[in-house]
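Trying the structure run again after the queue cleared.
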Amino acid sequence: MSDKLFDFLIIRYGEIGLKSKRVRRKLENTLINRIRQLLQRKDIKYEKLNLFPTRGRLFLYTKDLSRAIDELKKCFGIISFSPAFKISSSRNAIRDGALKLAESSFKKNDSFAVRTRRIGNHPFSSQDISVDVGAYILENLGDREISVNLSNPNHTIYIEIRDAQTYLFNQKTYGIAGLPYGSQGTVVTLLSGGIDSPVAAWLMMKRGCNIIPLYCDLDPFTTEAANKRVVEVLRQLFDYSPYKNIRLYISPHGNILQKIREFIPLKLNCLFCKRIMYRVAEKLAGKIKAKGIVTGENLGQVASQTLDNLYVLNQAVEIPVFRPLIGFDKSEIIELSKNLELYSRSIMPTPGCSAVPQYPETHASLEEILKIENEHEINKLIDEAFQDIKEVNISLYP
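Done. Tokens:
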């Protein structure tokens, strides 16, 4: 197997390389720290993790390449990685190294291509090397009846020549790109455990946000099954973070919902419920110095998510509300949820909220809602709800 040839991983990052030197260096250091944390939480040993002198590459030296790759697939900021080995940049060394790689992986009647990139001053071009290496492999593996196919080969040998050193590999595994986790600050996520909010949280994680989940427990309008679902969803979602433990905030929201139902019109239940969730989340954001609130709302998907009602919800708080799913179709959200292995957890059987009215308001009046809130000391209820928030630590790997 060609795996025996490899002794390190080439890790490639994407948009980090487009930043200014100062910002790039900061993001590179954050990415290195995140990779270390991901490896450490699974006890994956490594000898060295360092930056290549030119931008765009990290080198990870480890004897546990397979497990390291599994973890790097979850690391935001990485666009791809390849098991590789290093040789000198002489033509003979490149030929022999490429031949070893071909011998270990090519089977009878396989086709192949050679792709070469070159940085530095050399007495040959990238095209010279590709042609030379291709001919050398054909000459030495003629008994396998292999052939060159530049458009759709069975195998590709990649040659990266960088000054006096050359790196050889034959596969690229693609990462999830984005920016390193936590590099863009902290946000509070209103997480229900259903399909939408975990996907929204993941998209903000991909853009470099540190996610603090706030779960509004609707007991007695739902059951304990909803609480268990949230925990299962969180464990899968935070597998993409560098942490071993999850900090979950739980607000006893059902208590406040019981109180407001005594004086609000039934059709406004959902809007009042959400506005209070927003304001509790805003208070939590102030406490932990978060810069915004994330929700799984999607324009027009349900009654509370019409444009009019989203406007009313936005007016509940002064900090930004981020809705990364705002323009997604439901089918797109479900597909992403499945790809992230969140879907099976998000659809765990739980009864819906029994406080949802049969005919909810779809075009609420902000003036009407503010009038009701001013008449019934809503701020006092919100303060009480915030004081009752519980902080729970959940092990990612129970």
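The first helix runs from residue 21 to 41. Worth checking whether this holds up in the mutant runs.
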